[in-house]
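I hope you will forgive my troubling you with a question about protein structure. Here, with my thanks, is the record as I have it:
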Amino acid sequence: MDLFTNVRKYMFGVYRHKLSRITRKHGFAKKVEVTESELSDRGICLVGIEEKILCRELFDAMPPQGKRVALLRYKMGCSWEETAKKLDTSVNAAQKALSVGRQKALDKYMRDRPTVNENGKRQRTKSSGI
């Protein structure tokens, strides 16, 4: 399983838990389960929503310079040269800022993630890195 899948599963486990707590708090005790076979798009829309939330969470965890580079590159579609010019830096510095930003965002979510021990109970473990 790749790193992106691990982070994605962890993030949506957190969201599911938060939603569950909110529904219990407001009296929505009945649990609603939807399977992919019940969806007309075979779950593609849900995957898109999950990926958008994950990207937002990772983006929010990035340092400011990494965010600026990511916005210019991925949201505005700028080339590396355009990105560097707009940020008044070199292409190498912009690439480094994005690389460091992505690494810090992933480290934030992978550093202290829950795991399940042999008894089926959740426990927290420190990861050794990515």
Observations:
- The first helix runs from residue 3 to 25.
- DSSP finds five helices and two strands in the chain.
